[in-house]
Amino acid sequence: MARRFDPTRRDRIVDVTIEAVAELGVAGISARRIAARADVPLGSMTYHFTDMDELLHEAFTRFSLSVATRFEARLVAATTVDEAKQAVATLVLDDLAQSPRELVLTHELYTLAARDARYRTITREWMRRSRTALERHFTPDVSRQLDALIEGLTIHQALDTEPHDPQVTVSAIDAICRGA
């Protein structure tokens, strides 16, 4: 029997893993489930990845890089501090809060990182990139505070039962920037 040439198989497995985690959570996935969704033989899983941990690490790395790249693009496009403050508000109010998929993936990653230092390398790099993007316009201290604000407001918006007042976000950003 001839081998099927499939140069995108590894990437497809990683992409399918990201979507499966968004839908089922880390606890709901398995090599068998991922292989079926990716339409690859189960043996391909062990050929491309030593174990599920390696696959999850790569999937979460890919996910975090995609979010960090969009975050950086927003801040690079800003040419003034006011535009940068507006970019931060847009990140919170539009980009991050409007994607239940990304919220789930982020929290699945955070849960792994809280338990396993290997996943903290992903979250540390993500935070470093976020802060570096913020530091194009703000001091390191203000950037750290804004980064924490973005995370906190995104969580609150996603989990609160009451509608979020966008002015609260804008006021919080202004307060942090004034305190610098």
Could you walk me through the main structural features you see in this protein, from its secondary elements to its overall organization?
With 180 residues, the protein is an all-alpha fold. The protein has a domain of 123 residues: Tetracycline Repressor, domain 2. Helices cover 78% and strands 0% of the residues. Helix 4 crosses helix 5. The radius of gyration is 19 Å and the shape is elongated. The mean pLDDT is 92.
Percent of sequence in beta strands? under 5%
Number of helices: 9
Main beta-sheet strand count, sense and barrel state: none
Share in helix: over 70%
Helix-strand topology string: HHHHHHHHH
Let me know the CATH homologous superfamily of the domain at 56-178. Answer: Tetracycline Repressor, domain 2
Provide the gyration radius in Å: 19 Å
Keywords: DNA-binding, Transcription, Transcription regulation
Pfam families: TetR_C_31, TetR_N
GO molecular function: DNA binding
DNA-binding region: 30-49
List the helices and strands and how they pair.
Layout: H1 9-24, H2 31-38, H3 42-48, H4 52-77, H5 81-96, H6 100-115, H7 117-134, H8 140-159, H9 166-178
Task: Name the descriptors.
180 residues, mainly alpha, Tetracycline Repressor, domain 2, 9 helices, elongated
Concise overview:
GO terms for molecular function: DNA binding. With 180 residues, this protein is mainly α.
